[in-house]
Each structure stands twice: as C-alpha cells, then as structure tokens.
Amino acid sequence: MSSTSRARLGEEVWKLRTDKINAELVTLTYGSVVAQLCKDLDGDYAEVNKQLDKMGYNIGLRLIEDFLAKSNMQQKCANFRDTADVVSKVGFKMFLNITPTIANWSSDSKQFSLLFDENPLADFVELPDDGKAQSELWYSNMLCGVIRGALEMVQMSVDAHFVSDVLRGNDTTEMRISLIRYIEDEMPQDDE
Amino acid sequence: MAKKEQASCSSTANLQPTLSQPHPSAASAAPASPQARFRYLATMVVYAVLILNKAGGLIYQRDFNPGLQKLSSNDYLILAGTFHGVHAITSQISPTNDSASSGLEVLESENFVMRCFQTLTGTKFLVFAEPRQPNLDVVVRRVYELYADYVMKNPFYQIEMPIRSEGFDRHLTSYIKPHQ
Amino acid sequence: MNRDPSPFRTASTASTATSPTPKYANLTASTNLRYSLTRKSIYDRHLNRTKTSELSKSAFAFLFGEMVQYAQKKVYGVQDLEKKLNLHGYAVGQRFLELLLWRDGRTAKRETRILGILQFISHQLYRAIFQKQADTLEKVRENDDEYMISDNDPVVNTYISVPKEMSQLNCGAFIAGIIEAVLDGHCFPAKVTAHTAPNEMWPGRTVFLIKFEPEVLEREALRVGS
C-alpha cells in the first residue's frame, strides 16, 4: 500500500474509530511514571531508561491487538519501508495523534529514523538540573519499547532507541529503528 | 465440509454500527448502513465464541444458547488443539499458488456454521452460529475489538493465559444477546 | 515563569524554577541545563497550547495499565497498591490545579468554603480533565467531616476488570489522589478514597469518599459563626 493511503487510513481511524481523552492527563500521568522510576531507582538514569523500555515492551505486546482491531489491517506489510509508514502514519496517529517524519533510511532499507516534531509525552517537561539527567535520561524511552513489543508480535524483531531529544538540548528528537530479522517461528512471548 | 476463502476486507462503517455517521438519513438507504447491519444482527443466532492463543491453547469459551450440547472442558481443549492443527495445515497446503493463504476460515455443517478469524499476531477467534448466517465476519471482528479493549487493556490479564475478565464477558453478552 | 508543571518539580520548590534565557542566568545562577536552539523548550511554548488537545483513550489505558502492573510488583496487598495509585494521582492533581488556576487568570477564585471547593472539583476540575461533570456530590449524613463525589463510569476503570481475589481494589484511587491534591492545594487537607458502588445501570460506579481533617471543620465553623 502506498504511503498516502496509509496516511488516509491513520486519519480515518483517528477521526472515526478512536475514543479520545484529554491529552494533558496522559502527559502528566506519563510524567508521574517517569518521576516515580527516577525516585525508585535512585537517579540511576540508565536503569530508568531500561525500565521505561521494558514497560513500553509490555504495552507493545498488548497494544498491537488494539492497533490491528481498530485499523482493520489484515495483511502483513509489504516490506520494512511499508512498516515504517504504518508505524508513523497509522500507529502514532491513532494513539498519540502525531505522525513522526520518516527519514535517514540506510541503503539496505533496514534502518530508518523517526523525527518527532511533536511529542505529547514531553509537553511540560524540563529534565532535572542535576548535571546528568540531560546526558543520561531518555525521557520518552517507553515509546521504543512499545515499538519493539508491537512489531515482535507481528514477527519482526527490531531495535529501537533514541539518538537525540530536544529535552537534552538537541535540535531534534530522533528515534532510530533497525530491523534485526523477521521471526519465522511464532512462539508465544512472555509478559515480562 | 470445509471451504477456504480469501479474507474479505469490510469497510470501517460496517464494523462499528454504533459510530455516528455524518449523514444518518442518507446512510439508511444504503445496504451497508449501520441500520441495515443492525437488522442483520437482529436475526442472528450465535451459539458460541472460542478464542485460541498462538500456541493453539483454548483461552476463552462461552456458550450463548442454553439448548447446546454440553461439551466437557477436555473436549473443548481437544477441539481447540485439533482445529489449530488443521488450520496450520490449510494455511500451508493450498490448491492455489497463493503463498499467503489465510487458512481455514469457514466451516459449514447441516447444524451450524463456524467462522474463524486469525489475527496477524496468531490469535484465533471462532464464532459458531446457526447455518447460513451472513456477516459472521463482522461479528468476529467486533469480538476482536472487544478483546482488544477489555482483555488487552486490563492490567490484571496475563498475555496468553485463560481470560477471566468480567468486563469482557459483560460486553460480549450485550453485543451478542440482544440480537438473538 | 514558575508555573511549569514539569513532573520533576515538586510543588514546594516552585519558586526556585530556573530561567532559560542568558539574560537572567546571573540572577538565578543555578541552571546548567542546555536548551534546544529550535525553541521547543517549555519556556518557548504557550501553556495553553495543549489545553484542548486530545489523545486516544487507548494510549491512556495502556499507560495506566502498565503503571498499575508496575506498582503491583512492589506492594503488599490492595491497600498498599491503592496508596501508590493515589500518589500518582496526587502528582497529576497538583499540576492540573496549577494549570487550571493559571488559565482562569484574573477570574480564578480562591474557594474558602467546603461546599465551594467540592463544587469546584465535581464541576470545573472534572470537566477539565474528563470532559464531564461528576455525577453526584453528597454529604455523608452520619459524619460531619465526610462527603462523597460519585462517578458512574470513571475513565481510568473503563477497561479494567479487577480479579475476584482483589475485589476490594478500585483503581479509581488514582482519581482520589487527584482530588486529594486539589483539596490540599486549596488548604482543605483531607483523605480521599475510592470505593466501588455499582448499581443496575452502572457496574463500575465509583464513590470517592472525602474525609476532611478536623482543622478544616473548625475553620468552617468559625466562618459560619461570623
């Protein structure tokens, strides 16, 4: 399917088939989760990143069903470029009402970046001024886990991580997604 | 007697009869309008709903008709496991050259029709109904949506495990029962 | 600009919020934070930008569900879990209150009576967060210090089915925390708890029981007396 028809599908699902909620409630709740982790893990931001990714992964395993049920997608993506379109234009659109820009494809079409012009999770956020959060914490890391978990359920093993974040003072917020392999064997996954 | 067929993509409007439409009056004349859909469902008799996890384990089973023959839980497990195997075979061996076969989707007998829908994640939804029921694909998709809402979004549900969710039971009943 | 609702800022340190612009750097002399040149920091964006924004209810449900699951790993029983959810709600409530009052601008009113603050919660606050009013607001007849706000279908519970062995649990404890924060913010300290109180039509109906601290009633008595 073409990129434009994916975009149309995303718009349609968002407009017609998505129950909405106040965005600030989601933003502040996410903030509370991250702040709690920072407290629980005593400011060990590497651990916080890991935990956020893990929580996102758990969400991804479940969210994929909602994604498929609401988008009515019954065919696998034609290729990884199509997958990128679907993640950005249907997935992000229907859950967070944004469509991150797809950019920086590797020559083998196995890696791309998502550029977040908007990031509803990070509205209102300023990282702690403790000299390390800005170089160690990936505030929105849960999103990486969600993508990893969701794609794994449709037989794609991927790596997803942030490479820059405006919260760190970077000019962009960029997530890098790489296809590791297509999973042949459909074994059930553990709910971590 | 089993028959295989290509998954049919239903339009969005078909799947959610409750969604408000831009022009309800104009839509009511069209055959695929929510109102028309509702008439279909109004005469529908659904016998049972089964859900199978990726490994073919039965994670949900519910009868909607008191007159049904009672199967033991062991029978249900055998039924689920057997169907899982048959489905796997039918999706790999196909008379056509189509490599991406959806596998067994409809099973008809004199007394019932069964519709199977396998999601891209490998979960299977089985709906048993009166013979010659049209639009079972719509029913099975709606059951999938309810599953996404009331099973997947319930933090107390563990993935791949048997479904014990009061919310899912309740919404499934209120979707299927009024149409019987 | 010390009204930023950043999750890392606790309410008590509001006045120490740092300024981004070099112009003021000497005055506060405390920030080492870097800011994007693309002007996307919280100081560059209007606080009302997201006032009417919407996200999917599913996104919230998954986030909330994962929050519940994470909290559940570290607790000993239902009460402890509710306490954790209450604290999450409290953090959200503190920030929502600031947003609401800031947005009211000059028309913002400081509530000084019990009934006033409870109406503020069940009307304005509820509408701002949940796009609806709370369903009822009542006084508990037997106890002078107790009030009840009810919600027929709390948004946080829509997709949740509590297992039988935890039947006492109501994840509405999160909303109870929001209410508690707003009461605290108005100097009406109270304990707020969520209780499942289903009826025929609303199987998920929840009552938030508000129990005020004694000093609140004392103050109220003085005001009524005068």
In short:
With 192 residues, chain A is of the alpha+beta class.
Describe this structure in words.
The complex is a heterotrimer of chains A (192), B (180) and C (226). Chain A is of the alpha+beta class. Chain A has one domain: Muramoyl-pentapeptide Carboxypeptidase, domain 2 (2-Layer Sandwich), CATH 3.30.1380.20. Chain A has 6 helices and 5 strands, in the order αβαααββααββ. Chain A has a 4-stranded antiparallel β-sheet with strand order 2-3-5-4. In chain A, helix 1 packs parallel to helix 4 (80-96) and helix 3 packs across helix 6 (142-153). The longest helix of chain A has 27 residues, at 45-71. The model of chain A is unreliable at 186-192 (pLDDT under 50). Chain B has one domain: Beta-Lactamase (2-Layer Sandwich), CATH 3.30.450. In chain B, strands 1-4-5-6-2-3 form a 6-stranded antiparallel β-sheet. The longest helix of chain B is centred in the middle third of the chain and has 20 residues, at 73-92. By secondary structure, chain C is of the alpha+beta class. Chain C has 2 domains: 11-45, no CATH class; 57-225, Trafficking protein particle complex subunit 3 (Muramoyl-pentapeptide Carboxypeptidase, domain 2), CATH 3.30.1380. Chain C is built from 6 helices and 5 strands. The relative contact order of chain C is 0.13. Chains in contact: A-B, A-C, B-C.
